[in-house]
Amino acid sequence: MPRSIIFFDEKTGARCIDRSKCIGCGACAKACPLASAKFPPIRRVVKDGKKIMIKCDQCHGHEDGPYCVQVCPKSALRLV
Questions:
Q1: What is the 3-state secondary structure (H, E, C) of the chain?
Q2: 48-80 as b/e, with b when 16 or more CB fall inside 10 Å?
Q3: Per-residue pLDDT for 40 more than 80?
């Protein structure tokens, strides 16, 4: 299994996947203690013809925080 692909974002506290290193093997999804059939926090997609794993990274790199928090019409979400 590749190493140093999932990293910690100090600003948001999120665990992020370095997509440039990801080979889409799925080892992270299999090891995830939060995974279930109804809620897969990490899933495989094809982007630019390459299989990669994706997960919520709280919009890593976006200065205003996660988009979901910004667009929620009921203000039900917040980043704490």
A1: CCCCCEEECCCCCCEEECCCCCCCCCHHHHHCCCCCCCCCCEEEEEECCEEEEEECCCCCCCCCCCHHHHHCCCCCCCCC
A2: eeeebbebebbbeeeeeebeeeeeeeeeeeeee
A3: no
Q: Which residues pair with 55 in a beta bridge?
A: 42
Q: Indicate the pTM of the whole model.
A: 0.60
Quick one: tokens of 79?
A: 């980043």
Q: Are strands 42-47 and 50-55 parallel, antiparallel or unpaired?
A: antiparallel
Cα–Cα distance measured from residue 17 to residue 69, given in angstroms and rounded to the nearest whole number: 21
In angstroms, the CA 56 to CA 14 distance is 8
